[in-house]
Amino acid sequence: MANEQSTITAETIVDAPLEKVWKAWTTPDDITQWNNASDEWYTPSADNNLTEGGEFIYRMEARDGSFAFDFSGTYKKIVEHELLEYILADDRKVSVAFEENEGKTKVTETFEPEEENPAEAQKQGWQAILDNFKKYVEGKAS
């Protein structure tokens, strides 16, 4: 087994209220603006059925056209403004927790690693997307 780690965690603190953070995390028009780990990638489309049993699919593409894939899954648990739990298309479990404290919101993603890439590379990739999310939300007018 390539990754002995059972879960990986990435987190950030966004200088924005919980409601704004939740909206940016779950709204397709916002998702297409922040869902990339680097400038070489982008998300041309996002669909999000934010209901338990609902599915989401984010199309991720390399800007040079060399690679593309769908990041998709099914929601298993939704607690508005607090928690999202979902199963990715490859059966890995993910949870995203939101916690507001004094006008700032902590976002914590915990996910099961896949086995093709080293755990540290996966953590760095998910953290880079989360950092891009923070930058987007903090730069977005209310």
Automatic annotation (TrEMBL):
Region (Disordered): 102-125
Superkingdom per UniProt: Bacteria
Coiled-coil blocks: none
Residue ranges constituting the Activator of Hsp90 ATPase homologue 1/2-like C-terminal domain according to the UniProt record: 15-138
InterPro entries named in the record: ASHA1/2-like_C, START-like_dom_sf
Family assignment from sequence similarity: Belongs to the AHA1 family.
Protein name: Activator of HSP90 ATPase
Top-level taxonomy: Bacteria, Pseudomonadati, Bacteroidota, Cytophagia, Cytophagales
